[in-house]
Amino acid sequence: MLGGFSHNGKTLLSGVNPAGRADKTADAVPVADGTLYFCPSPLFGYGLERLLSRLVDFPHSALLCIETDPVLYTLSQEHFPPSLTDNPQLRLTNLCESRALCTFIKQEWGARFFRRIQTVRLSGGWQLFPALYNSLTESLQQEIALDWGNAMTLAKLGRLYIRNALRNLPLIPRCPSVHELSFGSRPVLVLGAGLSLDHALDAMPACFGDTHRLPHTRSFSIVCVDSSLTALKDRGIQPDLVVILESQHWNLIGFTGLSGWGINAALDLSALPRSAAVLGGNVFLFFTPWAKLNIFSRMEAAGLLPMTLPPLGSVGLSAVSIALGLSRGVIITAGLDFSFSLDTSHARSTGGHRSKLIRHNRLSNFLNTEAAFNEAVFNTTSKSGIPVLSNPAMRNYRDLFEREFAAGKDAPSRIFDLSGSGLPLGITTLSLQEAFRLLEDRGNAFTGRREASNVRDRECREKTVRSEKQLDDFITSERARLLMLKDLLTGTVPMDHMELETLIDECDYLWGHFPDYAASDRRPGIDDLSFLKRLRVEIDPFLRLLDKL
Q1: 260 and 317 both lie in a single domain
Q2: Which domain holds residue 495?
């Protein structure tokens, strides 16, 4: 047995019974189901067999061994016995990039397999790269939390998402995909509805005069989230594009006074259909897959899916993603704060701010006390050093922003944010003067189409006719599937278990939001009578919906 081990000037294993010490550490680890045990730098694997023996009764727990040093990784590969390498509850990897590691875990164990992560140090190898191992642990914990948050969202809103998507199908023949719109190389200002939005908008007149108010007079484009529209309207600023993601009716409160404004809208296929129509401008479609559903594959095969964006969960993040696709110029964000203060959480004149003003009276003060004193809220510091409040959900969106836009190959040189009350986003923060100088730079000559109407009329008419035929065929096909499934479940036709299982899988949008599926990512079997009864209840509302299209 090896008595001690050093590498790069650090003692990684004790010279006195290192295997016994590792076993004692493994015995002291609290074990629970649904836990991913993160073991940095396992070296010779001491203590791993003891810990695995304690996990036998916990099928949803596993041990992830990571070694980032190439020499030590080879050492572990050579010295791990078959009892470790063949154990389904253990994986050894040298992946040290958070996104690749999260993907690896999902491939090995599946989504939402774990509920928590716990670090287990069985050797001193973690001392070589402590910051990296801590960063990987935090990334894995955030990914697990995000995965379960998505599952809860799917259970709560999944039915509404698919119904909105079907209601929006008639828009497809007459509304182009958002990639039909282009800003060429113009800089783009992406606006959220956070407190720092006031800081940016109030400073614009001093720099731009009145030229920033209209798309054709300013040197840059504005892409904003829907909740910031009223703040722009009050200041006489017309954005080039508003991004609409919200699926619920309460979102219309933010459009009060904006009817017929003529603003172009990028509408998610699952968003509330009325949201874009009220603005009276051109509608451009995009699609965010909120779950893996077979109906999406059929829609894509039928040519009915617009441009697909990754599911980011936040309209602000989606707006940045769209802006990156529409322009080759720099992207500057403002109002994407992911934080709030004691007295408010949104910029002036936004729906959230107006609601607080409306409710303000002698018995209801203006302070944001319910949110500010929530148990989950924590104090933090903004990118400008200002004390602010935030919560785990906002922090997760901030972390997702950094992962999506700060770690890309070209993102650091293209995306910037403005100083203010928002959390640091992992990108370069600019002062107002620096940002406005970039916005005044028109870049290369403007190319591309400002609106889909610039596409040749003949091509548009041919595409519309083709899409209408594809849409009619798709609706007819989906309706036939639902009727056949209904007949099998009600006994109208003789039971064919193979066909029933096929139809259930094809019509996964009927049950994809069921809590037992959303949590496990696995469909209940066709012998589950409760599942079949719930499935039967879902069919008629969707048939009525398809009949109205």
Answers
A1: yes
A2: 457-548
**Cβ(143)–Cβ(111) under 8 Å?**
no
Q: Is residue 298 exposed (0-12), middle (13-18) or buried (19+ Cβ within 10 Å)?
A: middle
How far apart are the C-alpha atoms of 450 and 285, rounded to whole Å?
15
Q: Which helix (H) or strand (E) holds 117?
A: strand 116-119
Q: Which two tokens stand for residue 433?
A: 């003067």
Give every CB contact of residue 500 below 8 A, 6+ residues apart in sequence. 485, 488, 489, 526
N- to C-terminal Cα distance for the chain? Answer: 74
- Please, what is the average pLDDT of the chain? 86
**Residue 547 and residue 166: Cα distance in Å, rounded?**
11
What's the pTM? Answer: 0.81
Cα–Cα distance measured from residue 534 to residue 442, given in angstroms and rounded to the nearest whole number: 57
Tell me the pLDDT tens digit for each residue of 273-287.
Answer: 888 788 889 999 999
Coil/strand/helix, residue 400: helix
Same-domain status, 127 and 92: yes
Q: How far apart are CA 35 and CA 114, in angstroms?
A: 5
Orientation of helix 196-208 relative to helix 432-440, angle to 10°: 60
Please write the tens of the pLDDT for every residue from 308-317.
Answer: 998 888 999 9
Report helix angle 529-548 to 457-490, nearest 10: 140
Domain presence at residue 370: yes
Q: Residue with structure tokens 């203010």?
A: 420
For residue range 507-541, list pLDDT tens digits in order.
999 998 988 777 666 778 888 899 999 999 999 99
**173, 432, 423: which is closest to 314 by C-alpha?**
423
For residues 489-514, give the mean pLDDT.
93
To 10 degrees, the CA torsion angle through 498, 499, 502, 508? -120
Residues 240 and 327 in one domain: yes
